[in-house]
Design goal:
The chain folds into 2 domains: 211 residues, HUPs (Rossmann fold); 79 residues, Tyrosyl-Transfer RNA Synthetase. Helices cover 54% and strands 7% of the residues. The chain is built from 13 helices and 5 strands. The strands form 2 sheets. Strands 1-2-3 form a 3-stranded parallel beta sheet, with helices on both faces. A two-stranded parallel ribbon has the order 4-5. Helix 1 links the parallel strand 1 and strand 2. Helix 4 packs across helix 7 and helix 10 crosses helix 12. The longest helix has 30 residues. It is globular, with a radius of gyration of 21 Å. It binds adenosine-5'-tetraphosphate. The site of adenosine-5'-tetraphosphate has 21 residues, from helix 1. Adenosine-5'-tetraphosphate binds next to helix 1. Homodimer. Keywords: Aminoacyl-tRNA synthetase, ATP-binding, Cytoplasm, Ligase, Nucleotide-binding, Protein biosynthesis.
Length: 334
């Protein structure tokens, strides 16, 4: 029997992924190479839904791809590609847009958050239709599982609704995907605002830990992370969200259960604990940073890896799209 398929995408919207992207998504991508037929894409078409510069996007797409390979994606085991290299994404998105209600799209909380952040004047229609393009990304590959952070759960629900709607109207075509959300790391929060998610576009520099950042600044940010009143290291999401976030991070990075960490740091101040968190972060990030730098030093080789990924992705996407065109009533090319 064929392995279940997994697909996920990550946006090239910054010069580095952050710890939330790594723990909530990338680390799962790597783990899921085992036992899954894995497809991962750098979603550059999503990155243009907010203001951007062409040259910056091109650079960030390479940096994003390099980080995926550096984190452990193996081009022989996974299909790693750039979304805009597979034209079917936009083609299927249009078909799905035509099946989506205005109210349904308007309910997406990420759109509401982002449009409020950028202001009505700079919010484009692309940002509004973004979740539908994301649905197309997933459905094109007939993915069974989609590893994501908690912020993407609502988009996954929309994807399932659209797949069901298409299947119902035009006949069984799409696999219904399930979110794959790893407990404990589904929402890594901002170091300065521990109630908000760590985010490329909205976290302040002091609140975000970038995968490609140097050890000095990383350590400084962790030592200066907002902690809560008192000095106990206990997991109390409500009253101590800052410490709870650091405990989650430390637990995920070292594989130590949170109660064990609470016991280990009992009676010790925040300083010792934070120093250990900084060490665990640096130990995880350093090899990824070094491998990313090496991959970026040979752009031609990196581009060839992505071209090979695109060939594999296109083969699957083309097969789905052929079915969609036929079922949706488009005339075949004679
Ligand atoms: N703080 C987080 N904790 C856990 N998972 C997270 N993800 C993002 N932030 C956290 C997961 O990372 C994957 C890739 O995210 P994305 O590039 O599609 O963008 P995003 O979810 O919108 O993340 P950002 O950092 O907030 O990016 P911008 O600011 O560009 O929108 C997803 O699986 C996401 O769940």
């Amino acid at each position: 029997m064929a392995s279940p398929r997994v697909l996920s995408g990550i946006q090239p919207t910054a010069d580095s992924f952050h710890l939330g992207n790594y723990l909530g998504a990338v680390r799962q991508y790597v783990a899921m190479q085992e036992g899954y037929d894995a497809f991962y894409c750098v979603v550059d078409l999503h990155a243009i839904t907010v203001e951007y510069q062409a040259e910056v996007l091109r650079r960030r797409s390479r940096v994003a791809a390099a980080q995926l390979f550096a984190a452990g994606l193996d081009p022989d085991r996974s299909t790693v590609f750039v979304q805009s290299h597979v034209r079917e994404h936009t083609e299927l998105a249009w078909v799905l847009i035509c099946l989506t209600g205005m109210g349904e799209a308007g309910r997406m909380t990420q759109f509401k958050d982002k449009s409020a952040r950028y202001g009505e004047g700079s919010t484009g229609v692309g940002l509004f239709t973004y979740p539908i393009l994301q649905a197309a990304d997933i459905l094109l590959y007939q993915a069974n599982k989609v590893p994501v952070g908690a912020d993407q759960k609502q988009h996954l629900e929309l994807t399932r609704d659209l797949a069901q709607r298409f299947n119902h109207r035009f006949g069984e075509t799409f696999t219904l995907p399930e979110p794959y959300i790893v407990k404990g790391v589904e929402k890594i929060t901002d170091l300065q605002d521990p109630l908000a998610k760590m985010s490329k576009s909205s976290s302040s520099p002091a609140g975000i830990l970038d995968l490609l950042e140097q050890p000095g600044p990383l350590r400084k940010k962790i030592m200066r992370a907002v902690t809560d009143t008192g000095s106990e290291i206990v997991f109390d999401e409500e009253n101590k969200p800052g410490i709870a976030n650091l405990l989650r991070i430390q637990s995920a990075l070292t594989g130590t259960p949170i109660p064990e960490l609470e016991a280990r740091y009992a009676g010790q101040g925040y300083g010792t604990f934070k120093k250990d968190v900084a060490e665990a972060v640096e130990e995880t990030f350093a090899p990824i940073r070094e491998r990313t730098e090496k991959l970026l030093a040979d752009e031609a080789a990196l581009d060839r890896m992505l071209a090979a990924g695109a060939v594999k992705a296109r083969a699957v996407a083309a097969e789905t799209m052929e079915k969609v065109r036929d079922r949706a009533g488009f005339l075949p090319v004679a």
